[in-house]
Inverse folding.
């Protein structure tokens, strides 16, 4: 039997219901359990909350002991953005690799297996997939999180991902509406702006979201971006023109609308999280994601009280808050029954049974198919342990810096004695040459085209050691170079494994 809030009025309960907070630690703190008893209906998980699948299962069971229909959400895109495998790297390639393969059956299979693993741990809402069209190759926050730069490709793979994930009983949350791909600013730090005409937005940004809606996505996440053509005054998260008129009206979407993290600077630095939360709900959002940075009971209380006070002051219609809370409860009802019917849904959607042997390795199979190899004809696979130099850029907040990446670990398995080091800055090239000595060099980069120091380091290395192997694990925008060039289209663990197999001739 579902636990409903005790000792709280309907208004306060609704205000708690629309929050999706995070928390520290690998067990639920007392304050979070208490809030679940008072009406909180969702909880967000991050890498800091996960130590192992067994621990995660215990954590979600702890949450459901307090409220059995709680929505347990996670930001698990696979690829570069993984929380389930934050300490090891993902078993699944990310969107850009799947777009490079361009086989919707593979994308659906990957999403299904990822969803199956989440569901097995008690997670029932995934803040994924990214439906952003990466039309700006210098985008600092989307990049390999996008299926690609072609709207039609992104649309068909977004739909396949939604279908696969939800067939496993996990609600998809397609993001970042109306599209974060043509930005040069990370909304974690400031407010990005997209200056594009309506016709461009229609055929580029909106096409994947139309496909996701047609595929039945249960949730859509709004972006903290300013799109003057749609609303010159408010970012999408706070815009009734974008959330209500466009998403609900023109696109006909009737599922849950979730905001991107409300404490991101695009909102927090311009409106403040309390005021931003009120405006977002009034604009048409149904749930407020918070807790990537602010993860405590004080934040939950502040946002709850801000919503209640706004209703009592006449700034937020009570029926709008009630409608938002009911959409959250509606998704919770769907999620509570979806797991039981997941196998039936999988068959109906053409997703292979979970016992299919190919599913076990679908992530690695996809990663291998995603490789773009240049120079293989004249390349002799390495038989001696090389020196692996990781040219490491500053990670964006969405990806984080906790997750290992590269090819060193896999090459060390195939070629014992492999050594590695991390390098950055103007002197990186000379530093690598000194560290490598006479060993063969494998240099791993991430978005070479975005980092002048990385370009310079490669110039230095290749001038001195033309037999250097180059592995690009970001967007392969720069021209291939090196004795062997491998573009993995992402930095997931399986992408590194696939590249290492080529280098060692496995």
């Amino acid at each position: 039997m579902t636990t409903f809030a005790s000792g709280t009025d309907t208004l306060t309960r609704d205000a708690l219901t629309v929050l999706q907070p995070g928390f520290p630690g690998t067990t639920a703190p007392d304050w979070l359990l208490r809030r679940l008893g008072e009406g909180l209906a969702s909880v967000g998980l991050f890498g800091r909350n996960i130590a192992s699948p067994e621990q995660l299962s215990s954590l979600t069971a702890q949450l459901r002991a307090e409220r059995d229909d709680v929505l347990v959400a996670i930001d698990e895109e696979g690829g570069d953005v993984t929380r389930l495998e934050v300490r090891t790297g993902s078993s699944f390639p990310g969107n850009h690799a799947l777009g490079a393969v361009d086989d919707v059956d593979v994308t659906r299979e990957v999403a299904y297996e990822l969803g199956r693993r989440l569901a097995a741990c008690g997670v029932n809402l995934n803040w994924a997939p990214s439906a952003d069209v990466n039309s700006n190759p210098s985008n600092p926050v989307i990049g390999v999180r996008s299926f690609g730069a072609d709207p039609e490709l992104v649309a068909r793979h977004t739909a396949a991902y939604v279908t696969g994930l939800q067939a496993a009983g996990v609600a998809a949350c397609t993001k970042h509406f109306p599209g974060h791909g043509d930005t040069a600013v990370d909304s974690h730090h400031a407010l990005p702006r997209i200056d594009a005409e309506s016709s461009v937005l229609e055929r580029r940004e909106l096409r994947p979201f139309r496909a996701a809606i047609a595929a039945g996505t249960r949730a859509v996440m709004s972006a903290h971006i300013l799109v003057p053509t749609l609303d010159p005054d408010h970012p999408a998260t706070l815009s009734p023109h974008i959330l209500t008129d466009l998403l609900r009206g023109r696109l006909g979407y009737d599922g849950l609308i979730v905001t991107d993290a409300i404490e991101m600077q695009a909102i927090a630095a311009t409106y403040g999280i309390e005021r931003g939360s009120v405006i977002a709900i009034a604009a048409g959002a149904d749930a407020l994601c918070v807790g990537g940075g602010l993860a405590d009971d004080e934040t939950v209380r502040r946002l709850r009280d801000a919503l209640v006070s706004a209703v009592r002051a006449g700034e937020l219609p009570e029926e709008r808050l009630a409608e938002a809370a009911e959409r959250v409860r509606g998704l919770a009802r769907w999620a509570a029954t979806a797991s039981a019917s997941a196998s039936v849904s999988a068959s109906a959607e053409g997703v292979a049974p979970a016992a299919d042997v190919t599913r076990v390795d679908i992530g690695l199979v996809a990663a291998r198919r995603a490789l773009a190899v240049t120079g293989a004809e004249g390349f002799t696979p390495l038989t001696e342990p090389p020196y692996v130099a990781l040219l490491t850029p500053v990670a964006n907040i969405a990806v984080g810096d906790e997750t290992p990446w590269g090819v060193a670990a896999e090459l060390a398995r195939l070629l014992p004695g492999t050594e590695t080091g991390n390098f950055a800055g103007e002197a990186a090239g000379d530093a690598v040459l000194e560290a490598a000595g006479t060993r063969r060099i494998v240099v791993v980069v991430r978005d070479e085209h975005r980092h002048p120091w990385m370009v310079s380091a490669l110039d230095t290395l290749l001038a001195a050691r033309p037999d250097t192997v180059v592995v690009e694990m970001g967007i392969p925008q720069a021209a291939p170079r090196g004795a062997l060039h491998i573009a993995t289209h992402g930095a997931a663990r399986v992408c590194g494994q696939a590249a290492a197999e080529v280098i060692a001739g496995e």
Remarks:
- Residues 1-7, 343-358 have pLDDT under 50 and may be disordered.
